[in-house]
Amino acid sequence: DAGITQSPRHKVTETGTPVTLRCHQTENHRYMYWYRQDPGHGLRLIHYSYGVKDTDKGEVSDGYSVSRSKTEDFLLTLESATSSQTSVYFCAISRDRVTEQYFGPGTRLTVT
Amino acid sequence: EDKVVQSPLSLVVHEGDTVTLNCSYEVTNFRSLLWYKQEKKAPTFLFMLTSSGIEKKSGRLSSILDKKELFSILNITATQTGDSAVYLCAVEAARIQGAQKLVFGQGTRLTINP
Questions:
Q1: Cβ A43–B90 below 8 Å, yes or no?
Q2: Does any CB of chain B come closer than 8 Å to the CB of residue A101?
Q3: What is the number of other CB atoms lying within 10 angstroms of the CB of residue A24?
Q4: In whole angstroms, what is the distance from residue B60 CA to residue B66 CA?
Q5: CATH topology of domain A4-111
Q6: Most A CBs within 10 Å: which of B28, B47, B100, B109, as the mutation test of the A interface?
Q7: Domain B3-113 has CATH 3.30.450.40
């Protein structure tokens, strides 16, 4: 298994509070991704990174920001959580432009 | 808008049966198609397909891509209860600075009954 961890694994928070999810890899892979998974929608890309301090938006980026200050860490922040952001969040990594993505264990976030 | 559609959405079969899962796509700039298996946790990689007509095989699983008709199939022969999972199809629809932008289908939930 690729060395990817996510923290926390479960979180319950209230509407309006900030939340940060962490993805940590030990593979030294260049590319990192954040997805959310909701019933009926499959996995959707939120943000991705192609290097330290290099990030860009995916298809569902509104309400989310990211940061990557080290190769191994990619943080996803919900500045002010809303109930529509209740979801399972997956981090993924890939080594280069032609290899598959490997997924972390996921974080289940509930916004009440 | 790039789109990936999987069918059926749900399938229940008996152990030992053979199943075929379908994935069709409409993307502007196709690069590759990937299959993943998801049990109650993270998706795990099965296959990556880039060329038409070349079958990829791993044990009882195989997959093939048709870039002319814009679809792929995933076959599982002699199914076992451990094959029960959601099977996800994804298409690499763009590559930005080398990062792959994947578009996923909704998944097919496969249940194998003993």
A1: yes
A2: yes
A3: 17
A4: 20
A5: Immunoglobulin-like (2.60.40)
A6: B100
A7: no
